[in-house]
From TrEMBL, chain A:
Name of the protein in its database record: ABC transporter, ATP-binding protein
GO molecular function terms attached to this record: ATP binding; ATP hydrolysis activity
UniProt keyword Lipid metabolism, yes or no: no
Ranges where the ABC transporter domain occurs: 14-238
Keywords recorded for this protein, A-Z: ATP-binding, Nucleotide-binding, Transport
From TrEMBL, chain B:
Transmembrane segments: 24-42, 102-120, 141-169, 189-211, 323-344
Keywords: Initiation factor, Membrane, Protein biosynthesis, Transmembrane, Transmembrane helix
Full protein name: Translation initiation factor IF-2
Superkingdom of origin: Bacteria
A GO MF label: translation initiation factor activity
Length: 310, 354
């Protein structure tokens, strides 16, 4: 996908350098640096209060950063070029309760030049939400569908979804996610979905961004992150999981057995260990349980130092 | 898609949104304006009919005679002409003054119920995150959000102020000569003053809502602020133009000054006695004296010559004062709108949802 600025596929949808945001109670985000390539579907994972919503609000220009910069397709979030290219669904799905669903979609049409009414109506129809219903009378899950319809109808190139599925039943969650991913794949849309339940996004995301305590813990392609780790099990005594210079992310003992998550690209760690590839969830849990483990940012997710537009 | 089509489409689109959001207000306000306008027209027509039927139309109570009959200082029950005067005094005068007070509530309502919730509610309920992330810029959204209610308020209050001025000026000579025309009723309820005061109070509410971010506290603050504005204008108004000074004869008698000058002027600003050099000794300098003798001694001590003065705004000052006050209010309203635009650009920084 190209546009008037000559951005091409393979460029960054979202790029942060030295990004920080401080509230009165302290830093919500600090020294955040990463890039997301255009076209990826990224899970933004982290415990509650870790800074996920702050990061998304910064990208949506609802907050101004305290330090550093954030670029959306090379533009500052406050630039009109950025605003037209993002769609944001906030965690509490703010909508006008007195508007009907049809009014809400009309709002999208009136305020967005690239509006796709059919795509928006499809999402609403799939969730069996009547167009004449007042938004205030809808259930939480139905409101989420309307908010998603509004975001998809905007035909944005970057979708920022803050815990979009948290109030959906599993069946509808699966259906909505399917519809979302089909739309994204068809139009090459970059999607960032925040969640604190990774299982929600199992098999959907090709990129991962783990935030803990306002800092990036993991960033990059899911595959690369997963294959950069090994889960090793052995006897508790006499073995050092860090032998050979491997970074130990987490170690746990159960009985006389020691299980450790180590960062190791290739080599077996040593004799006496049972080595296997961890699931992505194993990796995430390991990092979440060990706040001091050093972060991992893959080559593809490192913020480039090249000059960005504006 | 070119930048130009984006801009124009955005402009009409955001107008649809604010119209949809203000639908209830627009209909309510339109109904209120029609009802009040109807009442004023009806009352004025009825009053003028009464004046004509009783032969006192075009008369003024500062003239001794009207159509050859003595009318000054009418006594209740002394004849049909006096009765007609008292009928106007008893029936139409209270309606005029009450209608004026009602119109004075319009700026307060515009500030508290239209202005204050306008953006505070969006900030409070989080819907600002919905509209500010559409393609239309925040500044354009604010412009439309302000323009539509402002236009409605200007049209509505202009109609009411014009009609009220029309009614009040017909009744003034008959029954309202003792009402100082520079006080809030009728001054702020008529002419461009009502229109500009309404716009100012509306924007005051918007700005307070934007800063306070919560609807109810913003409404309370706006109520206080509009009261402050009303009070401030009341203090400022007599000083907006230089007053004219009426001076009595050497014995303190104002008899040489035509009665209609007193009757049509806005009095009550300052009066007292003059010194030999022409300096003014206002009454309140000697207000602590407890008897007529003491008062006279007080003034003599201060150098009074016994020649009295009174500062007034003549009737010819009414319209200039109206336009000056309107100019002040509109300038303040414009400054508030600029403040809102700046604030919304610089400080979007609400708390994140998490």
């Amino acid at each position: 996908m190209t546009d008037e600025n000559g951005d091409i596929a393979g460029s960054s949808a979202l790029e942060a350098t030295g990004l920080g945001r401080k509230y009165r109670r302290g830093w919500a985000l600090r020294d955040v640096a990463f890039r997301l390539p255009a076209g990826c579907v990224c899970a933004l994972v982290g415990p509650n209060g870790s800074g996920k919503s702050t990061l998304l609000s910064l990208a949506a220009d609802l907050l101004a950063p305290t330090t550093g910069i954030l670029r959306i397709f090379g533009h500052a979030p406050s630039a009109p070029e950025a605003r037209a290219r993002i769609a944001f669904v906030a965690q509490d799905k703010p909508l006008y309760p007195r508007f009907t669903v049809a009014d809400t979609l009309r709002l999208g049409r009136e305020l967005n030049p690239r509006w796709d009414q059919r795509a928006a109506e499809r999402v609403v129809a799939e969730a069996d939400v009547p167009l004449a219903a007042r938004v205030g009378s809808l259930s939480g899950g139905q409101r989420t569908c309307v908010a998603l319809a509004l975001a998809l109808g905007k035909r944005a190139e970057l979708l920022l979804l803050d815990e979009p599925m948290s109030d959906q039943d599993p069946l509808r969650r699966r259906r909505m996610m399917g519809a979302l991913m089909a739309e994204a794949a068809e139009h090459g849309t970059t999607v960032v979905i925040s969640t604190h339940v990774l299982a929600e996004l199992d098999g959907v995301c090709d990129h991962l961004l783990l935030i803990g305590d306002g800092r990036i813990r993991l960033a990059g392609e899911s595959d690369a992150i997963q294959s950069a780790h090994r889960l090793i099990t052995g006897a508790r005594d006499g073995l050092d999981p860090g032998a050979g210079g491997h970074t130990v992310v987490e170690r746990r003992t159960t009985g006389r057995q020691l299980t450790a998550l180590v960062r190791s690209a290739t080599a077996p760690v040593g004799d006496g260990w049972i080595v296997r590839e961890p699931s992505l969830e194993d990796v995430l849990l390991g990092y979440l349980r060990s706040p001091d483990a050093p972060p991992l940012i893959t080559a593809g997710a490192r913020a480039s130092s090249r000059d960005v537009v504006r | 898609m070119t930048a130009r089509t984006v801009l124009t489409e955005g402009a009409t689109g955001v107008l649809w949104l604010v119209r949809r959001q203000q639908r209830a207000f627009l209909w309510t306000f339109a109904a209120l304006v029609v009802a009040l306008a109807g009442y004023i027209v009806w009352q004025r027509v009825e009053m003028v009919g009464y004046l004509r039927d009783h032969g006192i139309d075009g008369c003024a109570d500062w003239r001794t005679y009207c159509r050859g009959k003595r009318i000054s200082d009418p006594v209740r029950g002394s004849g049909p002409l006096a009765d007609a005067y008292f009928h106007v005094y008893d029936v139409y005068r209270p309606r005029l003054l009450d209608t004026g007070r009602l119109l004075l509530a319009l700026p307060v309502v515009a500030g508290v119920f239209v202005g204050a919730p306008l953006i505070a509610r969006e900030l409070e309920s989080g819907t600002y995150r919905l509209v500010w992330t559409q393609s239309v810029s925040r500044t354009r959204w604010l412009a439309a959000r302000l323009a539509l209610p402002t236009a409605a308020l200007v049209v509505g209050t202009a109609i009411l102020a014009a009609l009220y001025t029309w009614w009040w000026r017909t009744a003034r000579a008959i029954t309202l000569t003792d009402v100082a025309w520079g006080t809030s009723v009728p001054f702020d309820a008529s002419g461009p003053a009502l229109v500009s005061l309404t716009v100012l109070c509306f924007l005051l509410g918007v700005a307070l809502g934007l800063v306070i971010r919560r609807t109810l506290p913003a409404m309370a603050a706006t109520l206080a602020a509009t009261a402050g504005v009303r009070y401030g204008l009341g203090v400022l108004r007599p000083r907006l133009m230089p007053t004219r000074t009426l001076v009595s004869a050497a014995d303190g008698d104002f008899g040489a000054i035509p009665r209609h000058v007193f009757s049509t002027s806005w009095r009550g600003m300052s009066n007292g006695y003059l010194t030999r050099s022409g300096g003014k000794i206002p009454w309140d300098r000697c207000s602590s004296a407890d008897s007529a003798d003491a008062t006279e001694r007080c003034f003599t001590r201060l150098g009074s010559t016994g020649r009295a003065y009174e500062d007034i705004h003549p009737a010819s000052h009414f319209w200039p004062l109206q336009w000056i006050e309107a100019g002040i209010c509109l300038a303040a309203a414009l400054a508030l709108a600029a403040f809102c635009a700046r604030w919304i650009r610089r400080r979007p920084t609400g708390r994140a949802a998490a």
